[in-house]
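Hi all, long-time lurker, first post. I run a small reading group and we've been trying to get comfortable going from sequence to structure in the token notation. Rather than ask abstract questions, I figured I'd post a concrete chain and ask someone more experienced to write out its structure so we can walk through it together at our next meeting. Sequence below, copied exactly:
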Amino acid sequence: MNNRFILGIMLGLGMGFVISSSLYMIMDNRMQHSMEPEAIKNEARKLGMVDPADYFLRPEQEDEAVPQPNRIIIDIIKGMPSEEIARLLKNSDLIKSEEEFIQYLEANNLVSQLKWGRYEFLPGEDMEQIVETIILGNIKISNEP
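-- Answer (accepted) --
Happy to help. Here is the structure in token form:
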């Protein structure tokens, strides 16, 4: 009788596992729904993930960007902090001081308004013109000499 009792328990557990696994598979298939690629990207952005395509210029933009003499091309990557933008502008000799650039942005509440893209500047443009171009998103690329 002791063996029959253990056999009954083991048989009951086995049947329970089989039934619960079957129910799980049936319910899981019903609950799954396919998401469109754009919906997946939106959910990923909400979680802080990024699309690598946002960090690289598309081929049609690269074709347009033919640097002209005495013009400076600056690539601002999506998500680039203002400090990095200031360093990039300073290294390209477009601004005199990174600190002054940051202070100007903060004083005018413009830090969050900088837009990514490829910009073309002429040497000697003042800081206000540069900031306005980047804030307005005026991607200045021309093929004229």
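A couple of things your group might point at:
The longest helix spans residues 2-31.
The chain has a mean pLDDT of 79.
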